[in-house]
Amino acid sequence: MGLTGIQIFKLLPKTNCGECGVPTCLAFAMNLASGKAELDKCPYVSDEAREKLAAESAPPIRPLTVGSGEYAVKVGGETVLFRHEKTFVNPPGFAASVSTNEDDASVAGKMDRFKACQYDRVGLKLRPELFAVRDESGDAARFAALAAKVSDGTGAGLILMSENVDALKAAVAGLKEKKPLLYAATAANADAMGQLAAEAACPLTVKGDGTLESVVALTEKLAGMGLKDLVIDTGSRELKKVFEQQILIRRAALKDRYRPLGYPTIILADEMADDLMEQTLVAATFVAKYGGLLVMSDFQAHSIFPLLLERLNIYTDPQRPMTAEQGIYPINNPDENSPVMVTCNFSLTYFIVSGEIESSRVPSWLCVQDTEGLSVMTAWAAGKFSGESVGNFINKCGIKDKVNHKSIIIPGYAAGISGELEEELGGWNVIVGPREASQLPKFLKARKAQ
User: Fold this and answer.
1) Contact 73/65 with Cβ under 8 angstroms?
2) Which of 185, 104, 180, 177 is nearest to 146 (CA)?
3) Rounded CA gap, 391 and 417, in Å?
4) In a 10 Å sphere around its CB, with 0-12 CB exposed, 13-18 middle and 19+ buried, how is residue 320 labelled?
5) How confident is the model at residue 210 (pLDDT cuts 50, 70, 90)?
6) Do residues 171 and 133 both lie within one domain?
7) Number of domains in the chain
8) What is the largest CA-CA distance in the chain?
9) Does position 2 have pLDDT exceeding 80, yes or no?
10) pTM for the full model?
11) Which domain holds residue 133?
């Protein structure tokens, strides 16, 4: 970035209108300087300032969206090589491949598995988002029908893959609003593909001949045609070479601000390995190293679930702990006589504790207090899980309206707050529970038997 945030700020209208998504023009300028925002977000910037800032304010890796609705995948927009420098922000999308040469049963099976591969973890919905529809029969009508079938049947985002521009045109005609990714512009068809992408207002993949030089030639040509939303496929299919190219692309975009390589990438794992488990290893490699879209031959639970977890871990901000929402969580259908427990909102603590309560089969109320994502011991040491704070939370959260008793169970590691908590709650009996969550089932069953 050539200009600093202050230099950019001097060129902005200084209205502090907030329409860009941040409260002040200074904050917006700082986001522009760090590549986390686009100048188009400001509705009041002057033409003169826009012309001066346009090149400087563009993110080093252009963000774009494939698909629409709940399965839309935003890729690109990254600003660092390593997540510990700041964070990675836009997780890659996972796609399963279907072909016009597949029979209906095979396609239906993949669609069913796509819908089944959805998992709740730490309060988030983990799932794949895309289908790559391949035109391998050369039948444009069949290709368009398959794309429509997959879109209507799953709601997934689409990658439309054909060497035939007319086939792509037929397929995208009824799917423009779904914003599919068109694959792919090559040296032989770049003009026609670029024209189609512009008319359909859809993102476009550029496919090189295995070299970065060929990719640069294509991206420069298409950018000259006015296309901005591009995705890079270098054309390489050998793991080591693709790995090296991903790093070179990322470094060129971030360190050198080299615009012709400042686009997200697509990895065709199904063309790099035949076996699904080998494809999973390929995909795992490029979840960590900069793949924007990852295409596999199928979705199988034992394959996609580890990839979803890897993606979650890598694209979780390392500077901000994952948290559960503060509130009251009923577990095992509790009633007014069920025990009340309290814990912190560090997501790992919440899910371990709630899991142990659920396995005990004892109907219970679990009150989760906001401790800014700290564990019980750390929150207690920091004064964020004290008798006063827990007391205020219990008094205000509404649990008193749900039970007809006055007993609350606190974690064993926070036993020191019991006296102060009794004073805050006024007449409630504070019970010190076990130190370890694994002991909760035995503890709850013993109390129920009393």
Assistant:
1) yes
2) 104
3) 10
4) exposed
5) very high
6) yes
7) 3
8) 80
9) no
10) 0.77
11) 64-314
